[in-house]
Amino acid sequence: MKKQSIRFKNYFYTFTLLWLLWYAFTTSLQPAELTVGAVLSLFVAWITVKYFDCCDPILIYPGRIVYFVGYFFVFLRALIKANFDVARRVINPKLPINPGIVKFESKLHNRFAKMVLANSITLTPGTLTVDVIGNTFYIHWIDVKGGDPETAYKEIAEPFERILLKIYG
Amino acid sequence: MLKKIFVLFLLTVTGVALWQSFRHAPFGENRVGDVENPETVSAFYLKHSPETLHTANSVTAIVVNFRGFDTLGEVTVLFLAATGLASILYRRKEDEEEEGGHLPVRVKLKSSTLVRTGAKILFPLILLLGIYVFVHGHLTPGGGFQGGAIIATGFLLMFITYKRFNVNHKIMVWLESLSGLAFVLIGLYGLVAYGSFLQNIPWTGRLNDLISGGLIPLIYIFIGIKVATELTNVLDTLMNTKPRKK
Amino acid sequence: MNSFQEVFIRYRELMEIAVYGVAILLIFIGLYAVLTKKHLVKVVIGLSIMDAGVNLLFVGVGYITNHTAPIFSPGYEDAADKMVDPVPQALVLTAIVIGFAVTALALSLVIRLYRHHKTANIEQLNSLRW
Amino acid sequence: MDIYVALLILFGGALVAFFIDDLNRRWTGPVALAFALAAAVAFALTPEGQHLRLSILGFDLHWQQDSAARFFGWIVLGLTVLALIYSVKYMEGKARLGYFYAVFLMSAGGMLGVSVSRDLISFFVFWEIMTWTSFLLAIYNAYYGVETKGIKYIIFSSIGAYAMLTAIVMAGHYYHTYDLADLWQAGAFSFRSYWYIPASLMLGFAVKAAVVPFHVWAPDVYAKTPMSFTTVFSGAMSKMGVLGLLVVLTGLYAGGGDGMFWFRWILGWLGGITAVAGTLQAIRQNDAKYLLAYSSVAQLGYIVTALATGTRLGLMAALYLAVLHAAFKGALFMVAGAVEKQAGTTDFREISGLIKRMPWTFFVALVSVISLAGVPPLGGFVGKWLLYESLITETHSYFLVIVIFFSSTAAFLYAYRFLFGLFLGQAEEEIKQVKEASWWMLLPMLVLAAVSIVTGMYPGLIFKPAADVLAGWGLPVPDWHMSILLNRWGNQVDLVTVGSTVGVVFVLVAIYITLKGRKTTKWVSTKDISTSGEIPSPQDNLTFQRGFFKPFERAIGRLYDWDANGIWEDLGAALEAFFGFVRKIYTGNAQTYALYVIVFLVVLLIFARRIFG
Amino acid sequence: MTAIVINIALMLIGTAAFIGLLRFVKGPTAADRAVASDTLSVIGIAGLVLLAYVFRRYIYTDLALVYAVLGFIGIIVIARFIERAL
Amino acid sequence: MVISPVHYIVAPLAAAFFIPLLNKLYDDAARVVPGIVLGYLVVVSAVLVPQVLYNGPITEIIAGWRPPFGINLVMTPFSAILALLVSFMAFVIWLYGFRFRRTLKGGVVMYYEILQMMMTAGALGIILTGDLFNMFVFVEIAGITAISLSAFYRDRDGAEAGFKYMLLGSLASVFLLLGILLLYTQTHSLNMAQIAERMPAVAQGVKIIALIFLLVSLGIEAEMFPLNSWAPDAYSQAPSPTSAAFAAVLGVAAVYALARVSYTLFDAQSVSMFLMVMGFLTMFFAETAAIAQTDLKRMLAYSSMGQMGLVMVALGIGNETALFGALFLIINHAVIKALLFMTGSYFIYNNNSKRLVALNGIHKRLPYVSFLFSLGALAIIGFPPFSGFWSKFYILSGAAKRELLPLIIGILAITIVEMTYYLRVIGRIYFGKEETEPASHKPSINALVAMTSLAVIIVVLGLYPGLISGYLHKASMFLLDKQAYIQNVLSVK
Amino acid sequence: METVLLILHYAGLFLILLGSVFLFLGALGIYRMPDLYNRLQAGTKASTLGAMSTILGVGLIQPSWFIKLFIIVIFIALANPLSSHALARASYKAGVKPIITSDTDEYAAVADEAGRPKTEKNTQTL
Ligand code: NA
Ligand code: NA
């Protein structure tokens, strides 16, 4: 009984997201567009529901929205910083780099959360996620400030993971 | 070395000939002519696509209606390529025995967990995008082929990231056959009802509405489905060729 | 009128060289690969490059300076005399799909050949001759 | 009865024979014979002078039962019927009888068709039918000849046929007709306007008539084909070449005699050379079949020379010899076939002394050989007489007379060799069991022998239809009598008297020799090679069977060096090598192929204006 | 003002594409070319959107979206090819 | 629904799309349905061809847009006869192979049947379409099926043959596209009638370049020397019914395209010399290569190329007589070569070898098949009274009308080469010494019917060419009359 | 309303300019950096931000386009880092050696265990 309701829930949020996406594609509120979009979203949801497990509706509970917004700004800051960092290195004729690959353990358990973290790391200053095996992140670091996992964790992942842990618990 | 020089000579002659002859069609020159009183096919299409067919995308109007017969052939080419591919790479029992009972695999190595997570999110998005592209083929630069190709790449993403991702071949066959048949049947409807194969129905709606262009969007949807299933089949067959030890 | 369009008008000759030239160059490169490369896959890639060149030539031929895509989307309903030639675009769509079909078929043949001869060298594919 | 009835019977009979073989192999031969007889009856019942015009693809076909058609048609049908009677026993027990008889009848149909065709289209169609069917029979006995020898026949025939075809289409273009009468009228065969039309026609006919240097196909094919068909092959089919040459000659006459010079001299000399070459080759053969084959080539040479004179007597000689050659050479090939069937071989070195075992066969051989040698009182003599008369009195070609005379004299040598090799000399142990041939085989042989005998005394029997032929086509006709020959000095020869006299003398001599020989001959095996203590090698000439005419061969040895056969074979080998080289352009390399395409494209682009401008 | 900014942006993007192409040509490994084409595709998406604005045609944005999707999947496929998983 | 030319394309297409579905429901659907479809096409031909011959050409509008704006199908007497020929031959070939393919198991049969049927559809499209680009599409349909079928058997060197065909075919399609594009830039049309109408205004230089690209492209498909190197490999590696179809279906369409482009788009005079010379070279190289072959199917393939060369020569001669001969030869070649491949296939099947040596004495094991093969061989050489003679005679007469004596001699000389190797094979079949005695596979009843019907056609057409000559005359006259074609197509409302 | 649009317009122009500069820098990074991983570092970050900024800029100038452009931006934000990661991982496993100046390469052991080729010769070149 419970399983079924979960299934329905999955269908529902997959469908809703897709329908929203359809609206974004068409940016039209014509009844025909919306109807067709609904039908097609339903169809795509039917095909893909078993894969689309990232975005449980839990995530849009009000408390978490705040964290989302918070994360966005943290990320945006890091991103802009990263870009100026890159600009600095690229323009500098000496190419000041000290690369290496470090690893650290993440506390996240949700696969989607790990992906968000990895992407964030890739987009932030001087780091690039090379691989994630289990909870171990391997990071290519353009300017290694310390080879041990703790330093790496602190420097690279902590600001993001703090918020992600709040969201995905 | 001598051969390469010879080849370069040949190609230069060919290139020069092409260049010389295309100079007779200067780049950017208007060769379409007056649209109101069409002398060329292009002008005729630009006139009748919005006026008669009420189809915003005149390329779509050409592809599906004015030159719809080409498109039927084109769909057939794709279908035949899929068939040919299957017949060329078909694995018989003897082949499997010859290769020591190896089963075919698509990918040999596990892919990154991140990509796998991402693919799951993107897959529905890509499918919907593909569908959007062919449903709006008469309104936007999309169409059945483009949409079908996008859907097939969505499947490609899943094929290369998941070792065990499989398509339901039965459904694929049904979709492929029925969409192809639908195309032909719509064409035949034109023949029966209006005396000309693939002739559009007279009711063609309002320009730039989703429901416009008469049967054009419908045909393009079927083309989209057919292309999507066929390309997916092609990719599936092409990738399922590596032997794997039992 | 933006400067992009001005460039198109003022340097028509240059654009001609750019578009037709690149298209013909692609055909040239593709043919060169077909005629000289020894690896079967490279030969097939050469064919695809040729196809690309021809397709580019199609699109280039249909282009009209300062004209826009032949799509009567909102705001462009009456712009028929400001649109590029739609026919080559429709044709190129067909040509692309057919090119893809042939390439897929070619690759499947390469796979079979590689399995049968254990080599992808085109010069060793001559059990049929004379 | 219309003309086509006989043709339909023959072609229909072919179909029936082919399928009846599957039902009962014993019936195939008789059924084929029945059809041939029916065709002969139908042919006989066809009214004289009947015209038949058919239209096919817009071409008017013209078949006519004129005197020429009857003359050549009877040669064909007569020989066909006799050969089929002969075949019933001769072919007994051989494989693929359906194939043999079907193709035989079709071949006869083709020849009969050629005889009645009076337009070039149907002439060519029947000509080709006759050719490929005879090819199918020529390879009947041995496939391994096909790669070289059998195929040589069809290649030469086709060179000839296609030369004809070229002439036909060009004539059709220039004169807008294919009808012979119209073409004769229009002067199409004159050498003045389009010389290659008569020339290529003559080439085509010359090949079929085995004229040097296009004769090389003939000996092998005549010798290798089943003898029952060789009879027809050599006796009738080669006469189709004669008919063709007659057609051209008629055209020359109708066109006012233009080019008669070329016709007379080139063809005449080719005929003479053919006669000599054939004779010389015949002399050195060790196999009866080959001997006869080369002899056929030589005899056809006489006929061609006679025809080439284009004069009254010459033409009469040609037609007369055509019939006689059919008779005696047909008979001789049947003799060879009978010997082969009864004794297993026709190699002179392996058998001899068959006279006692096969007396009837010997009789036929004797008569035919005498006729062949042109000795009175048999038919062959009359033909030679006419030929000499014509060459000396009408065209004054004395050199040609010498050539022909040399060849005739030399012909005695092989004629004797044939008789001696097979029938005279000592009988070996091995042939003790040999029996006389079946009456099915003897009967047609005797009929043919009778022709030689009867025409020896009453050549007028042939003069009459031959004169009709000449008169019918507007060619010069000589005076003729039933059994009297006239020479230029007006001396009369009564052939009946000559014949009776010689006959009596011959019988007396024969009795004398037989009685005397009994007493004097000492019987030793020819294979008894024990001489006084020395062991001879196989090359040593111990018996007459081996190297029979060694001294003669030594005397004229240089002539043998001109071996046309060798030249053709070298040419063939060179061509084959060339073909093998050409196909190497298909290297098997896909890139090379693509390069061909681009090279071709570039060549076209470079010379675009020149090619398409 | 608008035109100047847009032109500067187009020029920058064009130069960027050219530099990216240089890397693509240089290689040296297939992976390097893949990196170059990855960047090129992103540059291309931005360029397409900008051109859509230049020509004032909303419908061109669809192209950018499709191009983004195809570019991404293309790079993933190449990556799988490079690691010899195909 | 009234029968119309569009059925030629739509019926096989619908069937092809439907077969995979049907095959899931009914096991033999893939084998049966193509027969029904091709049989239906024969019926369509039987209805339409007389209509065309007596009432004049049919121009079928598609999608309701009259020419030159829409794509249209044109059935002139010339194309109508070829359409009848192609559909009939495809049906016979299907009939021939019906039981043969039982040896193949599972889905492969379906692939095979679909491809084989669609090759016919592609050929029919080439023959019927009045639109240049549409012709390209059908060329590709035919090409893709042909490539796939060449590579069908994997125990042979099929893939190699397929690859070579693919390579040259791709070059062909690139050149075809370039030619079409060039013509489009100059005439702003893709409709062949309108292009023909506007052609005089086109600059000579561009016209010639476009012509060259089209000729090279179609020359590849039509097996013109030196573009025909794919042919021997493809013919010899493909399954025998397919080899038969290459000659009887694909070759017909390719030659048609060549004729249409030369006669309608350009003027026959300017192409005349080119076609004659290339046709003659094609004959020469093909026949000389054929005589040196040791493999039956390769020999037949080279022979096919030789025949195509003769057709090209006839097209080049270009007067009505020669065109009549060309059309007759196309028909003859289709029928006879199909018969030769069919019977040859049984030889190969029995010997387990394609080598000519293996044919020695095979008539004892396969008397009837040997008989049919020999009949075909004699007919293709052009021996009277078989049909091959008449076509050759007409072509020669056409050459005579242009007083091309050297050409006549050349053609006949090459015919002697051709004759030589065919007669050698006949010799082997009947008189060769058998070397092996393998188990005998007798032809199945359907194959017998197919082969016999072809043999009957050969004989009947040889004896009564009048049966079809009137139609052929009409057709060849129409091919020559460019204005009539333009008129017929462009006047349709 | 007018002013809002004007402000959006100039904000948009600024974003476009900024974005294109970053795109340029990203390309420069791709060209200048010494090894593949550093190229990825530079290229990814700069080009991602650059593209996002440019596209959003256009979205601000044309508000009616915003929603669709936003979808593109989200897609880029999601997909681009993923593709870079995939390329880095694949290259490393295929044996493309990184330049390591800090003596830290924790991933080498993992890749070697997975069968990384020993020499760079084995890296695929096309
Ligand atoms: Na003897
Ligand atoms: Na990135």
Write the layout of secondary structure elements.
The structure holds seven protein chains of seven kinds.
Chain A: H1 2-26, H2 31-48, H3 62-91, E1 100-105, H4 111-123, E2 127-133, E3 136-141, H5 149-168
Antiparallel strand pairs in A: 1-3, 2-3
Chain C: H1 3-10, H2 12-36, H3 40-62, H4 86-117
Helix pairs in contact in C: 2-3, 3-4
Chain G: H1 2-32, H2 36-61, H3 66-94, H4 107-113
Helix pairs in contact in G: 1-2, 2-3
The site of one sodium ion (NA) has 6 residues of chain D, from loops.
Outline:
The structure holds 7 protein chains of 7 kinds. Chain B is mainly α.
Characterise the protein shown here.
The structure holds 7 protein chains of 7 kinds. Chain B has helices spanning 2-22, 41-51, 58-66, 68-89, 93-98, 113-135, 144-161, 169-194, 216-239, and strands at residues 103-105, 242-244. Chain B has 246 residues and is mostly helical. Chain B has one domain (58-239). In chain B, α7 packs parallel to α9 (216-239). The mean pLDDT of chain B is 87. Chain C has 4 helices and no strands. Chain C has a single domain (2-124), classed as Helix Hairpins (Orthogonal Bundle), CATH 1.10.287. The model of chain C has no long low-confidence stretch (mean pLDDT 87). With 130 residues, chain C is mainly α. The longest helix of chain C has 32 residues, at 86-117. Chain F is built from 19 helices and 2 strands. In chain F, α11 packs antiparallel against α12. The longest helix of chain F has 32 residues, at 320-351. Chain F has a two-stranded antiparallel ribbon. Chain F has 493 residues and is mostly helical. Chain G has 126 residues and is mainly α. In chain G, α2 runs antiparallel to α3 (66-94). Classes of the chains: A mainly alpha (169), B mainly alpha (246), C mainly alpha (130), D mainly alpha (613), E mainly alpha (86), F mainly alpha (493), G mainly alpha (126). Bound molecules: sodium ion (2 copies). One sodium ion (NA) is lined by residues 44, 48, 80-81, 83-84 of chain G.
